[in-house]
Each structure stands twice: as structure tokens, then as C-alpha cells.
Amino acid sequence: MKIIIVKNKIEGGKKALEIYRATLKSNARVLGFATGSTPLTTYQELIKSDLDFSQIISFNLDEYVGLQADDPQSYHHYMEENLFKFKKFKTSFLLNGVAVDEKAEIRHYDQLLEKYPIDLQLLGIGRNGHIGFNEPGSSFNERTHKVGLTESTIKANSRFFADEVQVPRYAYSMGIKSILAAKQILLEAYGSSKASAVLRMVQGPMTTACPASILQTHPNVTLILDEAAASQLS
Ligand code: F6R
């Protein structure tokens, strides 16, 4: 794993932009995106940049089950507000949170991912070490699937909702196997609340108890961490 330590998330966004620039230069055509608070400064840098995404296909890691694309809390809406309304992409694939046939939706997403392999996947990390919505205990062998969210994730995500009761209990997520299929992975983590998960991801044993620890096996992972998130690394 290549580790880049930055002062704060603003600087982290600038470093991430450099990686996107190099990746696009090397003819990447497919990008995988994440939501949450972590990638916001990266999206701001991408928006301000001169990078052209009009020939780029994008995927998103996950979506809440039960939320319409235009629901203000959906990840569709997040992407629209934080990136897509500013930068034009060729096509953007996101899981449909209100798909009537859940199995068909999952199958279709896997087929798309197979057809358009991801060149660069952006990730955040949960305090419990989750990536995407792959919570502790998730199999390393799964592709897209439906997951029940853990109490800690529901609590952490409730900051985006009026109250905790409104946080959906299920989500669709690319699995660990789909994430590892990306040619390159960029994970960002900011703040002391991520320090223990970062330690377990980088220096801990590879275990499903910390899903991000599987990234130790991927040949091309870059971590952008601020000093607080890196504070427990030796
Ligand atoms: C979001 C996602 C999640 C987040 C993680 C960190 O699409 O897949 O795994 O990356 O929960 O969230 P933040 O960035 O809000 O701390």
C-alpha cells in the first residue's frame, strides 16, 4: 500500500486530483465512486479541475434500499449534487434502491461491472473497518449483494437524516470481490475517529472482522490519510 499523509482533507482532495489526472492520462475509462463525507473535497477538486469526464463511465459502490433516486438522502442524489451536475459523464451506473426485482438488479449490476471493469475505485472507510457497505463479517468472496446495516453504521449515517429511525436498514453494495477487481484503489480517511480502522486495515491481520484489511492483498492501493487518521500507525 502506498500511503500519502496530508495535513487535512483539503490537501487530501488536491492529492486525489493528481491521482485522477494521472489515471485519466493513462487512458482510464471507468471510475468507481463513493459517497459520505470523506470524498467531498476530492469531488470539489474534480469539479474545479479541467478534467474531461465526458467519455468516462462511472459506477457507485452502494445505495440504500427503499430510497428513490431523487430522495435527498439517496446516494444517487448525493452524486448528482456533489459531482454529476457539475461534470458531464458518458454514463453513470448506480444501483436502483427501489428495484422491484432485487435479484435482477444485483445481477444486472454485476454484469455491467464485468463489461466495464473499473480502472480506479475511490473508497472511504467506516469506523468499524467497512468498505462500501461490507460490514465486519462480510465474505471476501461476494460481488454485489443486499446487506443489513450494523447498528454502528446506522448511528454514524444518522447524521445525514432527521433522526436515526429514518436511516434505511438495508443497502445494496458492491462486494469485496467487486472492489478488489478494480485495477487501482484510492482510499481516503480523515480524522481521529478513523485511526483505529486505519491501523487495522494497514497493519492488522487480514480478517473479515475488518473488511478493509483485505486491501493488503491488492497490488495497487493508495491511501490518502490526514495526520489524525494515520496517528496509530507505527
Ligand atoms: C459510501 C460508502 C461507505 C463510506 C464510509 C465512510 O459510499 O461506501 O463505506 O465510505 O461509511 O463514510 P464517511 O466518509 O461519511 O466517513
From TrEMBL:
GO biological process, one term: glucosamine catabolic process
Catalytic reactions on record: alpha-D-glucosamine 6-phosphate + H2O = beta-D-fructose 6-phosphate + NH4(+)
InterPro entries: Glc/Gal-6P_isomerase (IPR006148), Glucosamine6P_isomerase (IPR004547), NagB/RpiA_transferase-like (IPR037171)
One term under GO cellular component: cytoplasm
Superkingdom as given in the UniProt entry: Bacteria
Pathway the protein takes part in: Amino-sugar metabolism; N-acetylneuraminate degradation; D-fructose 6-phosphate from N-acetylneuraminate: step 5/5
SUPFAM superfamilies: NagB/RpiA/CoA transferase-like (SSF100950)
Enzyme's top EC category: hydrolase
EC number(s) recorded for this UniProt protein: 3.5.99.6
Glucosamine/galactosamine-6-phosphate isomerase domain ranges (all copies): 23-218
Molecular function terms, GO-annotated: glucosamine-6-phosphate deaminase activity; identical protein binding; isomerase activity
Record keywords, A-Z: Carbohydrate metabolism, Hydrolase, Isomerase
Active site: D62 (proton acceptor), N128 (for ring-opening step), H130 (proton acceptor), E135 (for ring-opening step)
PANTHER family: GLUCOSAMINE-6-PHOSPHATE ISOMERASE
Family: Belongs to the glucosamine/galactosamine-6-phosphate isomerase family. NagB subfamily.
Described purpose of this protein according to its UniProt entry: Catalyzes the reversible isomerization-deamination of glucosamine 6-phosphate (GlcN6P) to form fructose 6-phosphate (Fru6P) and ammonium ion.
Entry protein name: Glucosamine-6-phosphate deaminase
Source species of the chain: Liquorilactobacillus vini DSM 20605
Gene it is expressed from: nagB
